[in-house]
Structure formats: C-alpha cells, structure tokens
From TrEMBL:
It comes from Comamonas odontotermitis. This is 5-carboxymethyl-2-hydroxymuconic-semialdehyde dehydrogenase. Belongs to the aldehyde dehydrogenase family. Its EC number is 1.2.1.60. The keyword Oxidoreductase applies. Signal peptide: none annotated. It is an enzyme of class 1 (oxidoreductase). Residues 16-471 form the Aldehyde dehydrogenase domain. The active site is at residue 242. Keywords: NAD, Oxidoreductase. The keyword Membrane does not apply. It comes from the Bacteria.
Length: 475
C-alpha cells in the first residue's frame, strides 16, 4: 500500500517514501510519502487559496459538511479502528469502542457549535462595542503518534468548522488513519484545499510548516521538547501547545478504596501507558499505602499483554523499537535509583505467536519511589507506575506540584473540603476528583507549566481557531 500527500484535493506522490510498521508484528503496512519544504509550500498555497471561499461559506453550510464527515467516520468505525490498532498498537477495545467513535463526536460537536458562534456587547454612553469572531486563516495542525486519529480530529473539526483551512501533519510513526480522514473529508463534500495533508518527519515537513509565513495558527500536540522547538521556529503566531505530562494521582486514606484502585490502574495502563494524561505518579496516603500497593501490584500482574486486535488485551505493543528501548531504559533506571519493583521488569511478556516480534514490555510497578527520582520526574510514556507515599495533605500537594509538568491531576478523597482545597492547589490544567479522566467536549483541555499553553474544547477553541475583533461604534 502507498500513502501520498493530499494537496488541493489531489493525491500527490512523494519524492521519497518511508515505511510505517505494525508495532505488534513488524510487518510493513504502507510506504508513506516523505514531504519537505516543497510539499509544505504547495499545501499552504492550496489552503490559502481555499480560505476566503470556505470562510465565507455560511456556518450552517459548513456545519452540514462537517457533520457529514462525522457520519462517514461513524459508518467506518471498525475499519478505521483496525487500521489505527495496526498502525500504532493501541488496543482494539480502546480504538473500536472509545477513540474512533469519539472522533466522530468531535465533528458533530463542532458542527453544532460553529452555528452558534456569538460575540459580546459592551455598551457605554458614547460607544457600542461588540465582538466579531473571524476565522484565523491557514492553520498548521501537528499530531503525535499516540491516539493519532482522535487527536487529529480534535484539531481538524474545530479548525474547519470555524471557517479555517488546514495543513495537517501526522506523526511519521502513525500516518494511516489520517490519510483515510483526508479521503472521507472529500467524500463528505468538503472542498479541495480546505484540508491538506503533508506526511513526513518533524524536521523535514513539520518545521517548514510551522515556520511558513502564511500559517497563522499552530495547534500542536506532542512532546515538550518539540513544542519548545516549534515556538522558536514559528515566530509570532497563535499557538495551542498540548505537551507532555507526569500527572499526580493522589489517593487519601478516606478515599473509596476500590474505585480509586480501579481508576489508578486504568490511568496508567490503558492506552499502553502511552497517554499524555496518564496518572503516572500515584501518591498514596501512608495509612493505606501497604494495602494499596499490594492490591495494585496484584492486579497489574494479571493485566493481559498481547495481541492488540484481541478484545481482551489491555496492554499492546509500544509504538516503536526505539520507544520500547526508552521504556526499558527507565525500568533499569528505577532499579538503579533504588525503587522497589513489585512486578513487571525487563523479562519479555508471553504473547501469542502472531505478535511474538512485537515491541512488548510488561506492566511494571515501582513502589517506595522518591519523587525526585528520574522515574518520577521524566515522562516515561509507557506502562510503568510509580507509587509514592505521603503523610498529610500539605505533603501531597507539595509532591503533586514538584514536577516541571502540569497537564492533568486526580484527587481521591471522601472529604469534600479537602477535595476542593487540593483541586485548587494542584498546578495543572485539569483536575479530576474521584474520577478517572473523563472528557466532556466543553471542558478546557490543556496544561500549564511545561505541559503547554492554550486550551482547546468548547468555546476555549475560539482562542486558537478564531480571531476576535472588537468593533466600537460611536453613538
Ligand atoms: P513528538 O514531539 O516527537 O512529535 C509530535 C509531532 O511533532 C510529530 O508529528 C512529529 O513529526 C512532529 N515534529 C517533530 N519535530 C518537529 C519540528 N521540529 N517541527 C515541527 N514538527 C515536529 O511527540 P510524540 O513522541 O509523537 O508524542 C508523544 C508526546 O506527545 C508525549 O510527550 C505526550 O505527552 C504528548 N502528548 C500530549 C498530549 C496533550 O494533549 N497534552 C496528547 C497526546 C500526546
């Protein structure tokens, strides 16, 4: 199979190609066009050309096309989910039941919302001020390899619905489902040039794209390191930067123990642990620490690791051999740093023959972790849990905030006052109380500190994809 760029509604061959590999089997899934500055130039020109007409299309008409794209995704869930699972190793139970259906919802939600964009009025005795929200123009949308389809649609849906045009660049490690998105967008009737796709590596295709002078906004999801680089290369533009995390999952001794345990396991081992909002630092009150650690490790030992196409598999393969090596390196480091490894480690998991060449690592649990250890400070981005004891609320807050990141956070307690105090004190863009991460598309999604700037979701997406203008009329 060959995947080409999509520019101005046409499939454009690459000068070079790279392979995208199934991380469970190492089979080559497709040859993918490797773009650079020339392809970026054509794609941005096509998006710029398409912009005025699309921006001036009535919102109700844009909404129809955007909703139609949602319908087409909904009709193709099994096919897209299987492609996604093969391309990035996320298990089918997640891609088929959660992630791809959520992608359709992204289009439904923003189709509705774009018809309701309103403004504010600020009347004074001398002037009537009111706000207009204009589309921004050509947007660069850059996506990582974890949950690639959902992330791409989370950007494409508001971008297009609000009247912008886009050049989307997927991760070189997981480009397949976005290529399908491009086909479905054309099938839905979205005009040529409104959504363009340039495939390729970050340095070759991503950097010229963000630096392009006709690109007005950059919506980026990826690592903090790349985010910093993009801000420098892009110059003055609108930014939404959704970056890395090392989110605290705080369990007090008065929490609903069983629910907290379930959620803690889910937040670090689902999506293979390759999740930006993973609760990767589990802070547990000393009063329940021993019981919690025992039960957590016992459950982690029983997690099914294996074929991502098997509905019962919880942990699939890591995205690449390089990423597997990184995760294994952190397991070695945890042992060297003196954390206590309760399960998992460097032994190869037993997996079915079909996937025996896969990039597998066992779900690993470290207890007695000191928050200053590197396993507690660095984003491992794999199924590796760090459990850290604390003695009181003040220490829990101090440890939760002792990190460069600030994406998500989780607080478990039955004490309502403490729940609100801790939620307010944690430095993070999001805090879930007595809950795992549950997304509502109206929430502001994003992080603080090294986890990023800007928020997307609901009216927060105006910040990225709309340009507010104040009109002041003299009375
Ligand atoms: P990455 O930063 O390596 O790559 C992300 C994307 O940026 C890819 O498409 C890549 O090709 C591109 N890129 C790389 N260098 C570039 C450059 N110089 N200019 C422009 N584009 C460039 O990240 P990754 O390894 O693909 O993804 C994992 C990271 O993403 C983790 O840190 C994770 O926490 C983060 N993430 C964050 C969120 C969030 O919402 N905050 C969600 C998912 C993933």
């Amino acid at each position: 199979m060959r995947i080409d760029h999509l520019i101005d509604g046409k499939s454009i061959a690459g000068k070079d190609y790279f392979e995208t590999i199934n991380p469970a089997t190492q089979e080559v899934l497709a040859e993918v066009a490797s773009g650079g500055a020339a392809e970026v130039e054509s794609a941005v020109a096509a998006a710029k050309e398409a912009f005025p007409k699309w921006a001036n299309t009535p919102a109700t008409e844009r909404a129809k096309l955007v909703r139609k794209l949602g319908d087409l995704i909904a009709q193709h869930v099994p096919e897209i989910a299987e492609t996604e699972t093969n391309d990035c190793g996320q298990v089918i139970a997640q891609t088929g039941k959660q992630l791809v259906p959520r992608a359709a919802d992204n289009f439904y939600y923003f189709a509705e919302m774009c018809t309701r964009v309103d403004g504010h009025t600020y009347p004074t005795p001398t002037h009537l001020n009111y706000t207009l929200f204009h589309p921004v123009g050509v947007c660069a949308l850059i996506s990582p390899w974890n949950v690639p389809f959902m992330t791409a649609t989370w950007k494409v849906a508001p971008c297009l619905a609000f009247g912008n045009t886009a050049v989307l660049k997927m991760s070189e490690l997981s480009p397949m489902t976005a290529a399908r998105l491009g086909e479905l967008a054309l099938e839905a009737g979205i005009p040529a040039g409104v959504l363009n796709l340039v495939h390729g590596y970050g340095k070759d295709a991503g950097e010229p794209l963000v630096a392009h002078h006709d690109v007005r906004a950059v919506s980026f999801t990826g690592s903090t390191q790349t985010g910093n680089r993009i801000v420098q290369a892009a110059g003055l533009k609108k930014f939404s930067m959704e970056l890395g995390g090392k989110s605290p999952f705080v369990v007090f001794d008065d929490a609903d123990f069983d629910r907290a345990l379930d959620a803690a396991l889910f937040m670090i081992f689902s999506n293979n642990g390759e999740r930006c909002t993973a609760g990767s630092r589990i802070l547990v009150h000393k009063g329940i620490y021993v019981k919690f650690v025992d039960r957590f490790a016992e459950r982690a030992r029983r997690i099914q690791v294996g074929d991502p196409l098997d509905e019962k598999t919880i942990v699939g393969p890591m995205i690449s051999q390089a990423h597997l090596a990184k995760v294994r390196h952190y397991i070695e480091l945890g042992l060297k740093e003196g954390a206590s490894m309760l399960c998992g480690g460097l032994d190869a998991p037993v997996v079915p023959d079909r996937v025996k060449k896969g990039n597998y690592v066992l779900p690993t649990v470290f207890a007695e972790v000191n928050n200053r250890m590197r396993i507690a400070q660095d984003e491992i981005f794999g199924p590796v849990a760090c459990i850290i004891p604390f003695s009181d609320e003040a220490e829990a807050i101090r440890l939760a905030n002792d990190t460069q990141y600030g994406l998500s956070s989780y607080v478990w307690t039955e004490n309502i006052g403490r729940a609100h105090r801790v939620a307010a004190a944690i430095e993070a863009g999001m805090c879930f109380v007595n809950s795992q991460n549950v997304r509502d598309l109206r929430q502001p999604f994003g992080g603080t500190k090294a986890s990023g700037t800007g928020r997307e979701g609901g009216t927060w997406s105006y910040e990225v994809f709309c340009e507010p203008k104040n009109v002041a009329v003299s009375m």
